Amino acid sequence: RFTACSCDPSKHTADCEEETGKCYCQPRFEGENCDKCAKGYYDPPECKQCECAVNGTVGEMCLPENGQCPCKPGFGGTFCETCEPGFTNVTAGCKECVCDETGSAHSNCSATTGQCVCKPSFTGKMCDQCQAGFYGFPNCTFCNCDPLGTEGGVCDPHSGQCMCKDGFYECNCLGAGAKALECDAATGQCPCYANFTARTCDKCAVGFYDYPNCKACSCLIEGAKGQACDNKGNCYCKGNFEGERCDRCKPNFYNFPACEECNCHPAGVTLDFAGCDKVQPGELCSCRKNVDGRICDHCKPTFWDLQYHNPDGCVGELILSWRQRPNKIRCSGFQCVKKLGTLTKHHPSGRKTF
């Protein structure tokens, strides 16, 4: 005589063990009493199926208590379905935002379009251009053109020259950089010395600062974005440089003018390596005996298997030693096996006698 299974249909199947009457769990449950969520399910007691986005998730399992999926770098959201701040374009793998340091308000951009948030007077997807009505990136100075006499009310985005309408002839060449009082009959442009710009030569040209002196910016080409500087003579430096002239490396960058990041491979540098600032000038990392490369990231020729626990960094050549007795082989560094009269080496290291 059989007794009907007494199971909860919300978490058990319709079957149970014949001898004990123990109920079987539905696929989304596990545990002695089927009261826990199985792998791939979350939020007990309902135990809903994980909804991890394939492109952004490491594996397909989520946390059983809240459904949070383990996201790849750059991805975010409960199901790794969007990009984290500072990353964009989820369909392309959440690439890092590329925003100009000078023109952008911060390093974040739109998660869908990649558009950076620009400071006033800057424009472009990366905020690396001057907005209409401004000129001379990366300073982006206001054009200051007379709206009555200017064509379109804007100036040349590079020189700052205002575009005059027909019928406006007053030169007003009173700027400190004007060579003469006469101006171009068609445009109204005053003749400027090389270190001045604008229609009346009353502004410093790109590469000069401190009007009315307009001294040359002394930016170092290796470290500066260009020859432009601010009104105090401070140059606009590339990411790895600093200083008024961009003439030195930022902290944690070395070997000016290369200014390399100290990204030495931890398994390849010597155990007593104290940092990139402690090696000889021109060098970056201090490699172990059998390791090579600028950042100690690969083995020297005839060596292999770069490992942190190996004091020499990499394993050397295979060494075989023979005993006096026939058919006895001793191997160090690898396992050796005898097969049809030949020796075949196997990793990991060990030894075996035949």
UniProtKB/TrEMBL annotation:
The signal peptide here is: none
Domain of life (superkingdom): Eukaryota
Keyword Nuclease assigned to the entry: answer is: no
SUPFAM superfamilies from the xrefs? EGF/Laminin
State one Pfam family annotation.
Answer: EGF_laminin
Q: Which protein are we looking at?
A: Laminin EGF-like domain-containing protein
Q: Which UniProt keywords apply?
A: Basement membrane, Disulfide bond, Extracellular matrix, Glycoprotein, Laminin EGF-like domain, Repeat, Secreted, Signal
Q: Which residues form the Laminin EGF-like domain?
A: 5-49, 50-96, 97-147, 171-216, 217-266
Gene Ontology cellular component list: basement membrane
Q: Where is the protein situated, by its record's location annotation? A: Secreted, Extracellular space, Extracellular matrix, Basement membrane
